[in-house]
Write a structure and sequence with these properties.
Polyprenyl_synt_CS, Farnesyl Diphosphate Synthase, Isoprenoid_synthase_dom_sf, 75% helix, globular, mainly alpha, EC 2.5.1.-, 18 helices, two-stranded antiparallel ribbon
């Protein structure tokens, strides 16, 4: 495999889908407008135009193309997916009290929490308007379920935060909600709008689900060993917020009494002191939690690539396979 291709498959996918992506961006700009509340496009533009990769809408466009779709409803669905994603980011940054997103100050920091929440609500409403315009009840069902699952995953994460009894299965349920649900819905609706055979629709869902899980596990690992310049978020944010992500869950499972007391203090009660992040990183390394988490991410990426076997052979399928490899290759 060409090394450059392995590193930047989303760029190749964006080039292949350039015309469709331009239509999606134009539709996003048109639908995020508000005649009566200019703050809505201001806040939305800050996030939508912040240099994100448009990964989720690209998945919808790619799935539709792979299944031979020739209409234009896939553009509406791709914009829908991006609006749902952007709305959840606006809400997440308020909940997490985040100050940085994609290397820039968050909307809640530049404006206020109220603006972020209300603009997020507006984008959710816009997303449902777009879904309805496709005239497909099945598409509406898939994306409405995804929106509910995302919220459910966020609430589950909130209740699991600082709870040292959180298991890997609960973590996986959270990840399926907060991340994989939108990935799998994005790919699935691309197949549905193209009237693809059911085995292909199922394969697209399975691909998106596994890709989303691999993506989130990789993100959670990078929180402990990443480069904030490259990731656009502060290293240790999850630690400071008391999130029980996979590396920490694995380390706690292997902890002795003293280590467990440390985790209870810094995560369970949130009483953190200078140097605690360094100590946590040392414990993660000592118990092989970082390597084990990395192995899990690669296994999910392999699952995503295997799901593509049921789909037609085409350059876009190869790019989707490369994309699954790329989301974990950034861990190397």
């Amino acid at each position: 495999m060409d090394v450059v291709i392995a590193q930047k498959p989303h760029d190749r996918l964006a080039a292949l889908l350039a015309e469709d992506l331009a239509a999606v961006n134009a539709l996003i700009r048109a639908r995020m407008a508000s005649e009566h509340a200019p703050r809505i496009p201001e806040v939305t533009a800050h996030l939508v135009e912040a240099g994100g990769k448009r990964l989720r809408p690209m998945l919808t466009l790619a799935a539709a193309r792979l299944c031979g779709y020739s209409g234009d409803d896939h553009v509406k669905l791709a914009a829908t997916v991006e609006f749902i994603h952007t709305a959840t980011l606006l809400h997440d940054d308020v909940v997490d009290e985040s100050q940085q997103r994609r290397g820039r100050p968050t909307a809640n920091l530049l404006w206020d929490n109220q603006s972020s929440v209300l603009v997020g609500d507006y984008l959710f409403a816009r997303s449902f308007q777009l879904m309805v315009e496709t005239g497909s009840l099945r598409v509406l069902d898939i994306l409405a379920n995804a929106a509910a699952t995302i919220a459910e995953g966020e609430v589950l994460q909130l209740t699991a935060a600082r709870n040292l009894a959180t298991t890997e299965s609960t973590y996986l349920q959270i990840v399926r909600g907060k991340t994989a649900a939108l990935f799998s819905a994005a790919t699935e609706v691309g197949g549905v709008i193209a009237s693809a055979p059911e085995d292909q629709v199922r394969a697209l869902h399975a691909y998106g689900d596994a890709l989303g899980i691999a993506f989130q596990i990789a993100d959670d690992l990078l929180d402990y060993q990443g480069d904030s310049t490259a990731t656009g978020k502060n290293v240790g944010d999850d630690f400071r917020e008391g999130k029980l992500t996979l590396p920490v869950i694995k380390a706690i499972a292997a902890a002795d009494e003293g280590e467990r007391a440390f985790w209870q203090r810094v995560i369970g009660t949130g009483k953190q002191e200078p140097g605690d992040l360094d100590t946590a990183q040392g414990l993660l390394r000592r118990h092989g939690a970082l390597e084990a988490t990395r192995a899990d991410a690669f296994a999910w990426a392999d699952t995503a690539r295997a799901a593509l076997a049921a789909l037609p052979e085409a350059p876009v399928r190869d790019m989707l396979s490369d994309l699954a490899a790329y989301v974990v290759d950034r861990l190397n």
